[in-house]
Design brief:
Blueprint: H1 30-46, H2 48-54, H3 59-68, H4 86-99, H5 101-105, H6 108-120, H7 123-134, E1 157-161, E2 164-171, E3 182-188, E4 194-200, E5 206-209, E6 224-238, H8 250-279, H9 296-327, H10 333-365, H11 377-386, H12 392-405
Antiparallel strand pairs: 1-2, 2-6, 3-4, 4-6, 5-6
Length: about 425
């Protein structure tokens, strides 16, 4: 394992705004990315329960993550990055989210936005973005608007004021933005066209409000971002309207990361269930046994959960390999659809095992496991909240319509 000297710092300034980027480690390949993720996960796991209980935002942990170089692992080799496989990317997210799924979710939009840059960015835009990411810049996201009837409606506007571009609007579900250096968002330009624009987190017209108050994924700070005539660099305006009919992989990449987060939650829930049964649980009185680990009903349920977890993991990794194969060739409507279907299958299984494992934990461990001191309910709270990002019932519909009727999935960030 490589040297991993990405120590947590104690700087009060990091509790208010992201630090300016500093030199970061340059990860060389897939193997090193996995090893560094495993090393960081050991550190992140230690404080995960306390951060959840007290809702302590992981400022220092995010700085350690950035210093490790993991934020740049999908930058193409042609631009100086490791260009890791999608299979490796999902394994990195699984490892980090098994330690702390709220912390692990924070870079989700960073990689989703980088996938969009890859699909539609000009060479000048790619050179700028990839260089900044390699230098330690973090990318957040200002998500859908809160009070519209549909999530794909945007009243946020970017307008020309002389030679300047100004962004005005309010967005929610902005995971990672409080920690970010850039905050991308969807907006409508002067001609009524959909664009993605990147505001700087430190611009005077940008306000990040930490008003996320969900019962799960509590430290993702997925709250409100307000733009009040924020300055926009013209180079960081991406004309998504021009690529509506162009197939790409940004949607499946965004979704496979969601699936990896869920399988990380499932892993953590099962691991904690096993520890509790081994160390604290008592056998049921009718069993006549001395130890809970010898209870045949518990053994059966553990076997059932382990099998479902392994199945979810394998189909997740297989979906990553499908993405790798599709990305190796020019992306067509058919290959993009194949990627979406593979990821949808993974999303179904990872959602189901995350919910099942976090619920079954208490059935196996017994009533003592519900004590607040253990905070084991965080696994179910995290699973229940995160799996609501996109309804699994529509994943079944996507797959069924594709298999039965040959209908290609709609192309957007949720497919």
């Amino acid at each position: 394992m490589p040297q991993t000297n990405f120590a947590l710092a104690s700087d009060p300034e990091t509790q208010q705004r992201p630090r300016p980027p500093k030199p970061v480690h340059r990860i060389r390949d897939d193997r090193e990315a996995i090893e560094i993720a495993q090393a960081l996960a050991e550190t992140f796991k230690a404080g995960a329960s306390e951060r959840d209980r007290e809702r302590l935002l992981p400022w220092d942990e995010i700085e350690a993550y950035t210093a490790s170089g993991l934020g740049a692992i999908t930058v193409p080799r042609s631009h100086g990055g490791a260009g890791v496989s999608f299979e490796t990317l999902v394994k990195v997210f699984e490892i980090l989210c098994a330690a702390d799924p709220a912390l692990g979710q924070i870079p989700q939009n960073h990689f989703g936005v980088l996938a969009l840059v890859h699909d539609i960015g000009s060479e000048a835009q790619k050179a700028r973005v990839y260089a900044d990411v390699l230098a330690g810049y973090r990318i957040g996201n200002a998500g859908p608007e809160r009070k519209t009837k549909r999530v794909n409606i945007a009243t946020t506007r970017v307008e020309k004021h002389g030679e300047a571009l100004r962004l005005t609007g309010e967005r929610f579900y902005s995971t990672g933005s409080i920690f970010a250096h850039y905050i991308p968002t969807r907006a409508v330009d002067d001609e009524g066209r959909a664009v993605q624009v990147w505001a700087r987190r430190d611009d005077p017209g940008v306000t990040v409000v930490d008003d996320w108050n969900s019962f799960g994924q509590r430290t993702t700070a997925s709250g409100t971002v307000k733009f009040d005539n924020a300055n926009i660099d013209p180079l960081l305006v991406f004309p998504v309207y021009a690529f509506v009919d162009r197939p790409g992989l940004a949607g499946p990449i965004s979704q496979i990361i969601q699936a990896a987060i869920d399988v990380g939650i499932a892993r953590a829930a099962l691991e904690d269930a096993l520890v509790f049964v081994r160390e604290k649980a008592r056998p049921w009185m009718d069993s006549g046994l001395e130890r809970a680990v010898d209870d045949p009903t518990i053994i059966h349920e553990v076997g059932h959960l382990a099998t479902n977890l392994h199945a979810a993991q394998e189909i997740l990794y297989e979906a990553g390999r499908v993405l790798d194969a599709v990305a190796a060739e020019p992306v067509t409507a058919e290959s993009s659809a194949r990627a979406s279907v593979a990821v949808a299958e993974a999303k179904i299984l990872t959602t189901e095992i995350a919910l099942e494992a976090s619920e079954k934990l208490f059935d196996l461990a017994g009533s003592a496991a519900t004590r607040a001191a253990h905070n084991l309910d965080r696994h179910w709270r995290n699973a229940r909240v995160h799996t609501l990002h996109d309804p699994v019932r529509w994943k079944y519909h996507l797959i069924g319509n594709y298999e039965l009727n040959g209908i290609l999935p709609a192309r957007h960030q949720w497919n």
